[in-house]
Amino acid sequence: MSDVNVVIKTTVRTMLPFIQLYGFYVMTGTEGAGGGFQGGVILAASFILYGITFGAEKGRQAAPESWNTAFKSFGLWIYAGVGMLTILYSLGRAEFLNYSATFLSLFVPHTVARGILIADVIEIGIGMTVAASFISLFFDLVWRSDEDGRS
Amino acid sequence: MDVAEMFLARYNYWSFVVLMLIGLYGAIAYGNLVKKIIGLSIFQTAIFLLFISLADVGKDIERTLGLKSGTAPIVWEKGIEEGYIYVNPVPHVLVLTGIVVAAATLALALALMIRIYREYGTLEEDELKELMG
Amino acid sequence: MIEHFPVVVVAASLLSAFTILLSGIFNRKISYYISLGTVTFQLTLSIFILDYVTKYGTIRYWLGGWRPPWGIEYATDELGAYTLFIVLFFSFFATIYAKRVVEKEIEEYKIPYFYTLWQLLISGMCGVAVTGDLFNLFVFMEIASLAGYALIAMAGKRALVASYNYLILGTVGISFYLLGTAFLYAVTGTLNMLDAKILLSLLYENKVVHAAFVFYFIGLVIKMALIPFHIWQPDAYEYSPSAVTVLISTAMAKINAYALIRIVFSVFTTEFLEKFLAVWTLVAWIASAAIILGSIFAIMQRSLKRMLAYSSISHVGYIVLAMSFLNTKWGIMAAAAHLLNHSLMKATLFMVACGFIYKTNAKRIEELEGLGRKMPLSAAAFTVAAISMIGIPPTVGFVTKFYIILASLETGQFGFIAVMIVSSLLSLVYFWRVIEALYMKGHHGEVRRDDLPALMLYPALILAVLCILAGVFWLAKGVVFLESIAKTLEVVG
Questions:
Q1: Do the Cβ atoms of B108 and C167 come within 8 Å?
Q2: CB neighbours of A30 closer than 8 A, spacing ≥ 6?
């Protein structure tokens, strides 16, 4: 029985960094395939895979609850914060989430800033929130064997 | 239009209707809480299928250059120069948002089901009605 | 400057929700004060928005600078600003009321999560009121609904099953709304409300448009709990925590009614309804049946909160009946006025009813005996709100019934006057039982006064006084504002 576990555990331990790298790649794909939500789900899937193979307690230690709460809040703060920043930085002349009205317009032409750079910051924020939410959901719903005497 | 065209050419709409009715029947008619949420999931997936099948444009136009219909909506300079037809990306975005909402609903329903099972010990609606009084 | 305020209202609520979640790790008591401060800030901004919109017209705001129809547009006209003010006004009073009852009913470690969900619910409702895009309305309504399901389920045992049933039926309803949007997108190619109205004016004979209208109507009516789709509402209102009942019965129900008015009158205009007229008169009769059946079910109840829930189901019928009068401006004016009137009355009633449960654990009407002497101010607030629900002039309840009677006189459909009179009599029957139990039963003699704490009592008293003052306001000067709403929605009289 432990032979099967060794195969699974070694495979998963090898695959996890590639899944996370792919997740980050998908998260920053605003012009192509992908976006914040898709990349965040793939990142969450890597943690959930770890939790499934190595047990819920070790999975909980890899993603503690306070870190999940912090990532959720920071992700949304990035999203709404960049939105409010565009209003405040242009002193009320640009709209909410108008990316060309941020600090980057001092360095790059405003069409480039509008399309690409800030949009990736927003996508990373969304991805953080989504990944943290799904990880925290999975570890809350997992049925552990020490509760209620049932497993 | 004749019968063959109505059924064979518009198979996407027919599959949407069949899936939606299966899902709606499951969500309403079954008494088990798990079956209800599975029916609801199928129902929402059918609506997303309708959205995506609306996006598939460019079937008969010659400028698709050998492809059956429009190509994937990725910004590609060669595609823009040669004038490829792109699939409509707006329904794809709507479906992404819809999938997020459906996933959140499913998560909330699962959490509620676990709490109900811990409180009452059953997931059948008629037994729950007896236990609640 | 003021055109940024609708977005700031929604974004402030979202930011404060996750601030409460973060600060809940360190300090649990601060969650309430962050929530109260945010709602106060939003309420002041919404007063500025309402003032600006009545003077200068619709605020049109393009998110991200992208022009419609490819970008999302926030279009806040008089009806939207009015609904935003109603939502935030009652959220403010519900948040003041919530401090004591939440400390009693919810476990202490859950209090930051409660206020996070509370702020998310408020942000979803504000987003519905200001948006001008069909899909954006779906997203915000789902945010509000999911937060609502989770808040109802926080009360424990029976509330879990009630919340689950509400989840299934509410998700079916909003999915019908999404299906209607899919049909409209297939036919017009746009998701913006104003653009869809212009493009649809050429397409009224198209069967896809008819199907889209039916799906929109049925979906929003399931969420509003019009009879026969009301099954989830009595359980959800009865078993939820007290503060959540106050907020959901006033603000959440009005947002669903606002969405229905917006879709029916701003996207499918009254010309479309006149071609579809046979189906629309059927709606008027279904609404009348809802009014009378809701009142009859309310008479049969023994639990006070459940009786008030059936009374809410009956009043949803008033809004839909008022919407169904097409050739007169008094119909839509009655519907818009009832958004505020019913919220004032129902907020007072639920605040006092939940106050009775807080003080004496009296859930059924028989257990309320003698509370008129023990808690005199709360019972007085309840009585004023009950008189207003029955419809005695010059309270707010009378204003709605008066406008509906004017509408039915102007269109010549006199059956609805009888419906109004019968429903007033039925309201008198079911409120008389409560007033009799409060004041006339129970042992006579000296009773020590032990009223509600100040944070729970003063909101109820202020809203009870407003029940009378707002009625005078509607009859004196408010008619002008309601006529401007009717003109914006293009219901000719």
A1: yes
A2: A115, A116, A119, A120, A123
Residues C483, C468: Cα–Cα separation, whole Å: 21
Say if A17 falls within a structural domain.
yes
Note whether residue A23 is domain-resident. Answer: yes
| DSSP reduced 3-state for C76 | strand
The answer to whether residues C377 and C371 touch, using CB atoms and an 8 Å cutoff, is: no
Q: Give residue limits of the domains in chain C.
A: 275-493
The domain ranges of chain B are: 3-132
Establish if A3 touches chain B: CB-CB under 8 angstroms.
no
Q: How far is C182 from chain B (nearest CA, A)?
A: 6
pLDDT averages per 10-residue partition of chain C, 493 residues: 89 93 89 95 95 90 81 90 95 94 90 94 95 94 96 91 95 96 92 91 89 94 92 93 93 94 91 83 91 93 93 93 88 92 94 91 85 87 93 89 91 89 93 88 74 88 92 87 84 63
Q: Which chains touch C (3 or more CB pairs under 8 A)?
A: A, B
* DSSP letters for C367-413: GGTTHHHHSHHHHHHHHHHHHHHHT-TTSHHHHHHHHHHHHHHHHT-
Q: Does C8 contact A95 at a Cβ distance shorter than 8 Å? A: no
Name the residue facing A92 among C1, C15, C18 (closest C-beta). C1
- The answer to whether A140 faces chain C, any CB pair under 8 Å, is no
Helix, strand, or coil (residue B66):
coil
Cα(C302)–Cα(C293) distance, rounded to whole angstroms? 17
ipTM: 0.93
Question: What does the alpha-carbon distance between residue B40 and residue B19 come to, in Å, rounded to a whole number?
Answer: 11
Chain B residues with CB-CB distance to C117 below 8 A: none
Beta strands (DSSP E) in C41-173 are: 59-62, 73-76
Angle at C463 between CA C457 and CA C466, to 5 degrees: 140
For residue B132, the chain C residues in CB contact (below 8 A) are: 157-158, 161
Q: Do C172 and B36 touch (CB under 8 A)?
A: no
Does residue A110 have a pLDDT over 70?
A: no
Length of chain B: 133
- Beta carbons of C8 and A99 less than 8 Å apart: no
**B107: which chain A residues are within 8 Å (Cβ-Cβ)?**
137, 141
Number of domains in chain A: 1
Which residues are registered as beta bridge partners of C405? none
Q: In one letter, which amino acid is C169? A: L
What range defines the domain where residue A66 resides?
2-141
pLDDT tops 80 at residue B75: no
- Among chain A residues, the shortest Cα distance to C13 is held by A80
* Alpha-carbon gap, residue C138 to C367, rounded angstroms: 42
**Highest mean pLDDT out of A31-45, B59-73, C230-244:** C230-244
Residue whose entry in the numeric block shows the structure tokens 């503060």: C243
Contact check, Cβ <8 Å, B47/C149? no
Q: What is the pTM of this model?
A: 0.94
B30 touching C, CB under 8 A? no
The yes or no reply on domain B3-132 and CATH 3.40.50.720 is no
Q: A107 or C294, which is more confident?
A: C294
Say what the alpha-carbon torsion angle C48, C51, C55, C58 is, to the nearest 10 degrees.
70
C4 with A66: Cβ contact below 8 A: no
CB A134 within 8 A of CB A40: yes
Q: What is the spatial distance between Cα C122 and Cα C95, in angstroms, rounded to a whole number?
A: 11
Q: Looking at chain C, which residue has its C-alpha nearest residue A88? A: C4
**For position A150, what pLDDT does the model report?**
41
Q: Which one of B77, B100, B120 would you mutate to disrupt binding with A, by most A Cβ within 10 Å of its Cβ? A: B100
Instruction: Tell whether B108 is within 8 A of chain A (Cβ).
Output: no
Q: How far is C-alpha C3 from the chain's CA centre? A: 25
User: What's the mean pLDDT in A109-117?
Assistant: 61
